[in-house]
Amino acid sequence: LFPDSSLKVTRVDFLKSQNTQQHHTDGYNIKNLVVRRGQPFQVQVSLNRELRADDKLSLRFGIGENPMKNRGSLLSLKPEREDFNGWKISVVKKDGTECLLSVTSSPNAPVGKYNLHVKTGTNIYKPENGVIYLLFNPWCEDDVVYMANEAQKKEYVLNDTGYIYVGSAYSIYDRPWNFGQFEEFILDACMYLLDKSKLSLTERRDPANVSRAMSALVNANDDNGVVLGSWSGNYIGGTPPMDWIGSVTILQKYYKTKKPVKYGQCWVFAGVLNTVMRCLGVPSRCVSTFDSAHDTEGNLTVDIYLNEKGEKLNISFDSVWNFHVWNDVWMKRSDIPNGFDGWQAIDSTPQEQSQGRFQCGPCSVKAVKEGDVYLPYDSKFVYAEVNADRVYWLVRKVNGRDKYYKIATETQDIGKKISTKAVGQNRREDITREYKYPEGSKEERMSMQRAYSFIRPSGLMPRSGYASTVQTLGGNTQPLVLNEPATKTGLHIEIKNTEPLHPGNPLEIAITVKVSAPGNWTIDLTGSSQLQYYTGKVQANLGTTKETINLEGPSEMQIPLKIAPDAYMKTLSSVEDEVLILVTAIAEVRETKDKLTKETSMRFQYPPITVQMPETAKLYNDFPCAFIFKNKLNVILENCKLLVEGLGIFKMTTFDMGDIMPGRIMKSEIICTPTRLGERKIVAKLISNQIKGISTEKGITIIE
Fold this sequence. Notes:
The chain has 704 residues and is α+β, with helices and mostly antiparallel strands. It folds into four domains: 9-135, Sandwich (Immunoglobulin-like), CATH 2.60.40.10; 150-454, Alpha-Beta Complex (Coagulation Factor XIII, Chain A, domain 2), CATH 3.90.260.10; 491-603, Immunoglobulin-like; 609-702, Immunoglobulin-like (Sandwich), CATH 2.60.40. It is 15% helix and 41% strand. The strands form nine sheets. Strands 2, 4, 5, 8, 9 and 10 form a six-stranded mixed β-sheet that branches. Strands 19-18-17-15-22-23 form a six-stranded antiparallel β-sheet, sandwiched between helices. Strands 25, 26, 27, 28 and 29 form a five-stranded antiparallel β-sheet that branches. The longest helix is centred in the middle third of the chain and has 15 residues, at 266-280. The protein is elongated.
């Protein structure tokens, strides 16, 4: 060792295990160091001789293709010198030729991949795996994504599994979803998306810009993004949306091929966007809204057209989806006035263009609640999704032409049971109150009037392209009175199933008609049943009933509606989506001309899959896991596939089961080798021609 020789670095140790534990990044399956911004991390630099006072040593962090100091993409940090762009570095201790340094990045540093070089005099040392991944930091009070509550961070940043709530308001069910933000290549896929977004370095500092860009990139529209949406019912050349059980396979495939993965629907887009945001360090949750309006004109009404049999017609430009799933991300908004921090809605399902791209949000959830729909981004659109009115029109043929009669306006139907997974628990949490005031309350009325003043609705007319023949009462009849349509007779309809809705059995449904006013009333009731997609599109008409009933008020009567299996099984087997049973009823009181309409969507019910495995297992020790399914239905389940995945236990696996006859029991077994400690989950899903929606999950604790 020559004391006078020029100072050279011989090795850099990124102290990965201690740094990643302190930064809550020890889950990432990657060779490189992953840290969060605004929080110190340490590196150990080994030198060829002792460090002297006059030695020049600096750490250089470069981001992007061609890092330059004057552009802020190259940071040159010298120990104990004033900070540079909010970054600091200090010597923790010197021990002979070893030097321990602490680096603190700025809490608003651009997120992304930084290349670290160490410069000593004129020598530059490039360590192996010298790329450091810098993420948002919900643990840092000065980061705009700071979240104070520890349990919430554990759920919204670190939990790599969860549920997405689907079905209908009448029957909500949880679909397990593996987010898998720590799996191999997922972080690299997110970094690839960041680069692809063309966000400037300055824009990468702010999660509002990053989340908006990611909402655009998760769909394939206009930028070759991650998932190609399809609602066609025919998914040849790709994976049907119902077949996914998590984001991992999708993002890995996208990162490998750099081409959109086929196919997704709203819960797939939301599941993947949730993975991307959690992976980048922004607290994020999947949010499901039941009876969500997809309103194409921004006038806060959705028009539903019924024929005289009470069957819904597919002629509307706007629609009510049985459910729609988007995401909320947590941040302080520096780009809008104070008071709108916290949860922000973002949506990557390609519905409508915003500023020329299929992207949506971030939109302050508080702004939606208060009716401040002038605030960026896309708050009018999100407001309409949870607050529109549903207007029913009857289409009658008069002299060979369609005439439209307005029969009802429902003001409390849209945006119900807004749901997300509860923090730290496997149950649904209802967050409707975060999005809206109680229906009919004074606050709701004020919020609505505020929203209307920004939206300025056009007159209330049907918008099906057939509007020239419309028969309507007066022009702009915007209902600001928020109560159930008042009728002279207190007419009320309820719809429910009287037997479990098992595929292969008759569907037995009851329509209950009530009147509360005294008197003799003659009521014409039309009831119809259809199969529809969750987007509200009708797939098949199953049957209708027309009855005239006499009620001595106040009283009620139950009218049965029964549909034979032959009426629906063929349709059920031919579509690759899960379909719902839509029941619509129209009642008219002859004496008063009171009209009322009511619709309810129900989902089919299925036998369960059971998972048999131990409650705990040891790291790297094999254990068996069995999946058991008994076909309790009266139909053969054709082309059955069992899809299983356990993050940190085993990769996505598919078993082909062939046809399962009624009464048959099927069993599959897999040998699992856990590679990660802690609470893990196994998710299983059964798909067949007849049924799409059977899934289950089971937890296991992995110990040392």
